[in-house]
Structure formats: structure tokens, C-alpha cells
């Protein structure tokens, strides 16, 4: 079992609150990703779980046992650092064996037991032919596999990974994503993984916790965070390109929203929610793939509102294009599933799918309807 529970965990460094009342529940065998920008507190949170930092407030449980004051070696967790931290004077085999070598008497393992377990893990990770090499003789991807093997050889309850793919080139990083996910599924180990890369998080995680300024903003499955972000931070942090946010105002006399020069009629449920909020300043949020851009109005969809806009830039990405358009002073991004050709300043039609709109309070940034 490898369940991890955090209850109102806080960590301060002087006047800076790095982790602010964070509560998490990580299930046994789950691939749990902590996602956020640099400086949001995600690595500090991982170090708190590992025991490399001590919380100022709150409680940390591993398998139901309070571990706040427990030494890192007694928590039965293994951590992979961003820079891999391999011992340069040891071979690959010696690096993998090291966690068992220093505790073989305690674990009641013979030298041959330690060696065989290290070789078994090396075969699992495809580095069995590198065991006699030194870290300086390895590529970045090979070094990363050695670091993963060294963490797994102990068979810990919890696997902690701090941006382990960030030092790899783009092609290898994509390959290692699915390899790491497949490995985690195969060994069934509870994994808590820290990253700033939302594509990495969306493609690998069972559950994601999005952090900002030391706090958890939203926890959920990748699809839930993408389709219904809880606030404008999550909405614009997840997704490439991020969600479009357009300033709108609720009319006082009618249940309508004035936006981009058109009025959206609201159903009674949404109108009542917005009225209870007491704010008339809103953002509407819409994903770029739910925005249509065309040189003619050729799409006949019931709930699409059309506007005229001017192209600012087109970013061709092979199978798709990102088109940035100015509509009445508001900047909108559209994602097309084909190459879209247009000159800067060219007038185009932009269609917004009204069925896909989300409403956020402009003052607080919170999702309202």
C-alpha cells in the first residue's frame, strides 16, 4: 500500500509562505501530478513528503502513519531529482545497487541478492547493457533511466519525481513520457510527480493538482481540469494555446450578457447564478478549438455567433494552425485542424460556439456558470 494524505500542510521560509494549507489525498497505485509554474511551491511540497523539509503546520500521512517527524530513510519513499544526482565514481550497476548496499544488513540481503535485484531492475528499464559504464559515458536519457532504476530497486511504497524529464531534448522527452507511464503501470507503485509542463501532466496523470502561489487551485482528472477549470488561472495555465478570456458585462434590465458587440441570452439557471453573485463584470472563456475562423461564413451550426475580425498572426503547426485575431479590440486565438493561410491585417470571419462558453467573475477569477 502507498496511500499519501496531506492535511492543511504549511511551510514557511522566513516571511515567504512556500506551501499554504495544502490538503491532498493520493490513492494507492495512483499516478498523481503536481502542476504549476516556477516558484509555486510544488518542489517544496514534494520535499515535505520525502522528509527533506519539515512542515510548520499540518500533517503528512503515508499509509495512515503520521510521518511529520520521521527521518526520510524511515518513510519508505524514493525520490528522483531533476539533475539525477548519480555518483560519478560509481558504475551504473553500483549506482543502482547503492540504496540496497548501504542497508543490506538491515534488509537481510546478501551481496548476491543486491546484485540480482539491481540487474532485474536494469533489464526492466532497458539499461542492462550499460551496467559497467560510468555516468559520464551515458546520454541524458540513459542517466535518467539509471536514476529511475536506483529509486525503484528498493521497492518503495511511494515514488517521488521532481521534473525528471526537464533535462531531456524534446523528442526524447515525448518518448520517456509513455515509457515512464508504462513502467509505473507495470510496477503499480504510487507516484507523485512534479512538473511545470501542462502537456506532460495532461498526458501522464491519473489525477492533477494545479498549484499557484503555494496553494492548490484545483484537483481533478485531466479532462475535468481542461473542460471545466475552476478559475481563470487554471483556465489559462492548462491548454495550448490557453483558453480565451473575453471581457463581458451583464445587462441590468435583461438576462443577457453584452460581449464583443453581441448579446448572449442566458437560460434561467445561469441567469440566477450570476444574479446571486452580485457582479456584473464577467469573462467568458472559450477554448481555441471551439473558435471557428474562416474567410467566408460556411459553417451552419445552430449556436455559433459570427463576427468580423482582423488577422494578427498565423502559426502553422503542420496538421493545424493557431490563428490570432483582433475582434473589436479583443484578442482571440483559434485552433484550426488544417493549414490556414491569411495575411496580417486580412479580414476574416470568426465563429464562437455558444454551447462551449464558460463564465468567470472578473473580480475574483472564479468559475460561476
Describe the structure.
The structure is a single chain. By secondary structure, the protein is of the alpha+beta class. The protein folds into 2 domains: 4-229, 3-Layer(aba) Sandwich (Rossmann fold); 244-361, Beta Barrel (OB fold (Dihydrolipoamide Acetyltransferase, E2P)). The protein is 26% helix and 34% strand. A 6-stranded mixed beta sheet has the order 6-7-8-3-9-10, with helices on both faces. Strands 13-12-11-14-20 form a 5-stranded antiparallel beta sheet. The radius of gyration is 25 Å and the shape is elongated.
Oligomer: single chain
Structural class: alpha+beta
Kindly, what is the distance between the CA atoms of the first and last residues, rounded to a whole number of angstroms?
39 Å
N-to-C order of helices and strands: EEEHEEEHHHHEHEHEEHHEEEHEEEEEEE
Spatial extent as radius of gyration: 25 Å
Strand content: 25-35%
Number of strands: 20
Major sheet, described briefly? 6 strands, mixed
Mean pLDDT: 89
- Tell me the name of the CATH homologous superfamily of the largest domain: P-loop containing nucleotide triphosphate hydrolases
Into which percent range does the helicity of residues fall? 25-40%
CATH architecture annotation of the largest domain: 3-Layer(aba) Sandwich
Question: Tell me, what is the CATH class of the largest domain?
Answer: Alpha Beta
Question: Strand arrangement, largest sheet?
Answer: 6-7-8-3-9-10
Helix count?
Answer: 10
**Count of folded domains:** 2
Per the CATH scheme, the topology name of the largest domain is: Rossmann fold
Weakly predicted, low-confidence segments = none
Shape: elongated
Amino acid at each position: 500500500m502507498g496511500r499519501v494524505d496531506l492535511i492543511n500542510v504549511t511551510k514557511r521560509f522566513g516571511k515567504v509562505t512556500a506551501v499554504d494549507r495544502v490538503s491532498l489525498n493520493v490513492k494507492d497505485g495512483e499516478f498523481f501530478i503536481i502542476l504549476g509554474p516556477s516558484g509555486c511551491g510544488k518542489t517544496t511540497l514534494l520535499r515535505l513528503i520525502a522528509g527533506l523539509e519539515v512542515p510548520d503546520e499540518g500533517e503528512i500521512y503515508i499509509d495512515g502513519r503520521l510521518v511529520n517527524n520521521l527521518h526520510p530513510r524511515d518513510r519508505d519513499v524514493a525520490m528522483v531529482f531533476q539533475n539525477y544526482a548519480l555518483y560519478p565514481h560509481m558504475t551504473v550497476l553500483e549506482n543502482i545497487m547503492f540504496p540496497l548496499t548501504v542497508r543490506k544488513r538491515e534488509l537481510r540481503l546478501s551481496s548476491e541478492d543486491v546484485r540480482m535485484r539491481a540487474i532485474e531492475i536494469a533489464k526492466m528499464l532497458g539499461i542492462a547493457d550499460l551496467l559497467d559504464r560510468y555516468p559520464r559515458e551515458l546520454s541524458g536519457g540513459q542517466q535518467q533511466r539509471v536514476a529511475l532504476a536506483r529509486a525503484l530497486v528498493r521497492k518503495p511504497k511511494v515514488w517521488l519525481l521532481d521534473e525528471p524529464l526537464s533535462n531531456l531534448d524534446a523528442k526524447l522527452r515525448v518518448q520517456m513520457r509513455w515509457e515512464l507511464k508504462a513502467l509505473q503501470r507495470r510496477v503499480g507503485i504510487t507516484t507523485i510527480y512534479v512538473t511545470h509542463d501542462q502537456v506532460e501532466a495532461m498526458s501522464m496523470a491519473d489525477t492533477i493538482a494545479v498549484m499557484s502561489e503555494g496553494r492548490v487551485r484545483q484537483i481533478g482528472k485531466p479532462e475535468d481540469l481542461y473542460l471545466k477549470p475552476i478559475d481563470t488561472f487554471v483556465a489559462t495555465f492548462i491548454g495550448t494555446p490557453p483558453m480565451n478570456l473575453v471581457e463581458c458585462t451583464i445587462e441590468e434590465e435583461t438576462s443577457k450578457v453584452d460581449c464583443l458587440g453581441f448579446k448572449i441570452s442566458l437560460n434561467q439557471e445561469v441567469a440566477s447564478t450570476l444574479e446571486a453573485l452580485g457582479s456584473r463584470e464577467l469573462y467568458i472563456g472559450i477554448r481555441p478549438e471551439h473558435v471557428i475562423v474562416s474567410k467566408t461564413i460556411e459553417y451552419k451550426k445552430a449556436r455559433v455567433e459570427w463576427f468580423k475580425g482582423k488577422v494578427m498572426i498565423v502559426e502553422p503547426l503542420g496538421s493545424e494552425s493557431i490563428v490570432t485575431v483582433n475582434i473589436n479590440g479583443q484578442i482571440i486565438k483559434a485552433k484550426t485542424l488544417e493549414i490556414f493561410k491569411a495575411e496580417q491585417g486580412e479580414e476574416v470571419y470568426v465563429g464562437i460556439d455558444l454551447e462551449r462558453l464558460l463564465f468567470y467573475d472578473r473580480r475574483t477569477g472564479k468559475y460561476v456558470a
